Amino acid sequence: MKHLVFFVALLSVAGGAIAHEFSEVCSSGQTLYYSTLNNKASVECAGSGSNPYNGYVRPAGNLVIPDSVTHDGYTYPVTTINSRAFYECSDLLSVIIPNSVTAIAPEAFYGCSGLTAIEIPASITQIRTNAFANCSGLQSVVFNAVECTQMGTTSKPVFQNCTSLTTLTVGASVTCIPSYAFKGCSSLENIFSHNSVPPTVNNVNAFENVDKNIPLIVPAGSHDAYAAAYAWREFFNISEDGESPQGITDAGLDNTVVTIADGRITLTGAEGLRVTLTDIKGRILHHQTATPTHTIDVPATGVYLLQVDNHPAHRISVVK
Question: Which of 7, 48, 122, 198 qualifies as a cystine partner to 229, CB 3.0-4.6 A?
């Protein structure tokens, strides 16, 4: 009977009517909509694909998606977040995706501009095109998917137009990074990988348009492994978690010595010389005549260019 209901639901989508079979209120208070197939449940949008929430209240606030849902006396595991399930739910502030979910369909969270962080659980095996596109407030992604094999396409990456996304954290159990996974994440400022064995990257385009000068922080003892691994070796500033950030202790600037610790750059031996610090976008952050022990407090973790007098600039990485 459930299979028949699902078939009817599919016909409704084709006709532009209601796609879901039933709705239930979840533990965090929002009403979610579901369809079923093979005794598994998918989270759906309330209306049709072209009008996802036409006449329905969009989920808002802090959402906890359940790992199962009970309807008419039967309990279904929730395994999919379907296409446009939360399309342009701009008042959605946070989402917890359960480990029962294995797939996130195209445009599932498209335009959820209120989201600032998202965690991809270990169970996810595929994230389809534009799943988090236009999530303009998204700042942080924690990627814990152990064996995700599909993420977006070359023309429709998962995080397209996520212009505020600055931090990516890769979980300790992640074994692979799919093609196109983080393509276009051009605003990334930091990547933290917690697996001492570099996850296999299917194609270098997984990090296409990501600035390779940003800090890549890896577990202690794994610097050389990342520096030799396909795709990871494209990053120029790899440092180990817990160690002093990699910088320059002898800049080759005559008698000037540069040290970096705790977000501060210290120059000795540069007294009377002009010291200039710029970020990688060319913005001047510091331009002063050096004192005997000259210090510069950097605004944030990142990659900078340090120039002393007329010597060539040196690229350095600083962890704040």
Answer: 198
